[in-house]
Write a structure and sequence with these properties.
Blueprint (H helix, E strand, L loop, with lengths): L7 E6 L5 E9 L2 E4 L1 H5 L8 E6 L6 E8 L8 E5 L13 E3 L6 E7 L14 E7 L9 E6 L20 E4 L2 E9 L7 E6 H4 L3 H7 L5 E3 L4 E4 L7 E5 L32 H13 L4 E7 L6 H14 L3 E6 L6 E3 L6 E5 L6 H11 L6 E7 L4 H9 L4 H4 E6 L7 H18 L20 H13 L11 H24 L7 H13 L10 H12 L10 H14 L12 H9 L4 H14 L3 H17 L3 H16 L1
Parallel strand pairs: 7-14, 15-19, 17-21, 17-22, 18-20, 20-21
Antiparallel strand pairs: 1-2, 1-4, 2-3, 3-6, 4-5, 5-6, 8-9, 8-11, 9-10, 10-13, 11-12, 12-13, 15-16, 16-18
Helix pairs in contact: 4-5, 6-7, 9-10, 10-11, 11-15, 13-14, 15-17, 16-17, 16-18, 17-18
Length: 635
């Protein structure tokens, strides 16, 4: 998907009022724009306007040759008085939108809000997506802006002047921008579809040809195995939150990265690096990973990379192994970026994709998103027939790119504004980010803090204490994490239920098994088994079964220790606060640590219990009191 910059132009309607708009050359000497750009200035058919191509230097004289008179046909055609002054190679390709899936689009125009100080016009590129179907009455379609919105200090519409700019999807023009959807803020525009325009015979007569409308959309399905169930579709990275969705009942949904509710404020250099890798890798198949802890922004970074690649004409999206639809293909025809999220759970599928695409004649990029490169990476290498390393082009670890305190404060401020707007509640005054130091690098936790600040504000709800919404939101986050634990545990082919798995993760958060300076992994395993035995549900489990759980915990959260606690700490606090057996479990763990002279585990236990008790009362507070009593007796 790429805009031909030679076709993009500004229009100045010099009528009674004077009006700036945008246009797109759809054939040699003929440009398409919005009718109201002309009619608002008092112009009619045969009147004169001036046009400035975006790559040109001089304004060119043109004539209005067709003007939509129907209120539902806000389009017009201009013809250069001298077509040789600015020539385009061919007629534009035209397209229509089938189905109902969101489709990525690009546009370029001249919003007056970015006019330079000396009065010169500045071209603005817009990236977004549209949501079919086209309205059967007025031919309009909503355009959701995904890129940055122009800044305005003059009190006029931020997008004034963008009217008439063409919407490009794939290689085709599918419509033009006509107005702002005022009830939805600055990130929702309305476009007129070309499907509606070509229904007018007078429009076609003025155009001079009858365009064939190609269907636009991600309609292919890549089969990467011998059976139909080994296939995927490319999912649009922008998953629109429906207007009909009752977000007040489920505010947590605003935190999902694919809904893109908060502006992408940082890490633009990483997006540029990924885009450069996508475009400039010489190999037809190339693989890169994005790694980082949960909530560090991996998925959102991959989404922004997809948008950047789409801006340069690539098919780009997330691999969807479940959704139906699409015409089956065994080879991709266009340069394609495929993002595979939760890659550590999909090693067998990725290995098959590598085998299928390794001889592709078309450039293909696999961007794998995971918590870390641990045992799943070694498994993937083996399953791929030892092909993986030859196509591997490195790792971007977000652990090496933490957000600064200033970044976090800005993200918190923007999140407050966006969430309060979406939830139609009062923006809290004088609310500051007050989180634990080690959590400040996690975008998800910063946004959760903003959501809790809004929902707990006395201006918005009957205030029943900060625990009300904090507990609801954090429990939802922990449950999402728990769903991942279950998925990963199923890969170990054992059948412990979610309750036991939660207690195992809680134990791993409370201790760090230590070999006590003794040699070998065997001592670590013995230590791990001893700590897991403190969970009463595992009293009858065999050492082999518990060792399987220990191996699972070892791979669950990346880090330097044998087990690593659930992080960010806010999630760990909520996990422990909801653990009814915490007082008994913590006391038993402390005794085991003392018996083994495992000072590291005792220290980790006390720190985790103290934090959890500081965030909530109940079990964590009682557990802390019991531990301190034991410490007093020991002294």
């Amino acid at each position: 998907m790429a805009i031909d910059s030679r076709r993009v132009a500004a229009v100045y309607a010099r009528g009674k009022e004077g009006n700036i708009g945008s246009a797109y050359f759809v054939s040699n000497g003929v440009a398409l724009t919005a009718a109201h750009v002309l009619s608002d200035a008092g112009l009619e058919v045969n009147d004169k306007v001036v046009v400035l191509p975006s790559d040109g230097i001089d304004w060119l004289m043109a004539t209005v040759v067709w003007l939509g008179q129907d209120p539902y046909l806000d389009a017009a055609l201009l013809s250069l008085d001298d077509p040789t002054q600015w020539e385009v190679a061919s007629n534009s390709l035209w397209g229509k939108l089938p189905g109902s899936d969101p489709v990525a689009v690009q546009s370029a125009g001249f919003p007056s809000s970015v006019t330079q100080n000396d009065g010169r016009l500045s071209r603005e590129n817009l990236i977004g997506f549209v949501t079919p179907p086209v309205d059967s009455v007025n031919g309009c379609i909503d355009l959701h802006v995904a890129s940055s919105t122009p800044v305005n200090s003059r009190g006029e519409s931020l997008w004034a002047g963008m009217s008439g700019a063409a919407l490009i999807a794939g290689p085709c023009i599918i419509g033009i921008v006509i107005k702002v959807r005022s009830k939805f803020g600055t990130d929702r525009l309305q476009a007129l579809s070309v499907e509606h325009m070509v229904e007018s015979e007078s429009f076609l007569s003025a155009l001079g040809y009858r365009p064939e409308l190609s269907e636009i959309g991600s309609d292919w399905r890549l089969q990467y195995g011998s059976h139909a169930d080994k296939s995927l579709v490319l999912c649009n990275p922008n998953q629109l939150l429906p207007d009909s969705y009752n977000i007040a009942r489920d505010p947590y949904r605003l935190l999902r990265p694919d809904h893109r509710q908060v502006d992408f404020l940082f890490r633009h250099d990483l997006v540029a690096d990924i885009k450069q890798w996508v475009l400039e890798s010489k190999e037809n198949l190339a693989i890169k990973t994005i790694t980082g802890a949960g909530g560090s922004g991996k998925t959102r970074l991959a989404i922004e990379a997809c948008l950047a690649a789409a801006d340069d004409g690539w098919d780009a999206g997330f691999a969807d192994f479940q959704s139906p639809g699409g015409n089956v293909r065994y080879h991709l025809e266009s340069p394609t970026l495929i993002v595979i999220d939760e890659a550590d759970l999909l090693a067998s599928q990725i290995a098959a994709i590598v085998k299928t695409t390794r001889n592709s004649k078309t450039p293909i990029r696999l961007l794998l998103v995971a918590r870390s490169r641990t045992t799943w990476w070694e498994t993937l290498h083996s399953l791929s027939g030892d092909n993986l390393l030859g196509y591997d082009q490195g790792e971007i670890s977000l652990d090496n790119f933490p957000m600064s305190k200033g970044d976090c404060a800005e993200l918190f401020r923007i999140s407050l504004q966006r969430f309060s707007n979406r939830l139609s509640v009062t923006l809290p005054a004088n609310v500051n980010l007050n989180f634990y130091e080690e959590d400040l690098t996690d975008p998800l936790i910063v946004q959760i803090a903003a959501m809790i600040a809004i929902l707990d504000d006395t201006a918005n709800v009957d205030h029943k204490g900060a625990e009300l919404w904090r507990t609801k939101i954090m429990r939802r986050a922990v449950q999402n994490e728990a769903n991942r634990w279950v998925q990963m545990h199923e890969m170990h082919h054992t059948n412990w239920n979610e309750k036991v798995l939660r207690r195992c993760v809680s134990t791993a958060t409370l201790v760090s098994p230590s070999s006590n300076a003794m040699s070998g992994v065997t001592e670590l395993e013995k230590s791990a088994i001893r700590f897991l035995r403190t969970i009463t549900d595992l009293n009858d489990a065999t050492n082999h079964q518990i060792l399987s759980l220990s191996d699972w915990l070892h791979t669950l959260h990346s880090g330097p220790a044998y087990w690593n606690p659930l992080r960010p700490g806010q999630l760990a606090d909520q996990l422990l606060a909801d653990l009814t057996i915490l007082p008994e479990l913590a006391e038993t763990i402390y005794k085991v640590a003392m018996d083994r002279r495992d000072a590291n585990s005792a220290k980790t236990l006390i720190h985790a219990i103290t934090r959890a008790a500081g965030s909530s009362q109940g079990c964590a507070q009682y557990a802390m009191e019991r531990i301190f009593r034991l410490m007093g007796k020991a002294s």
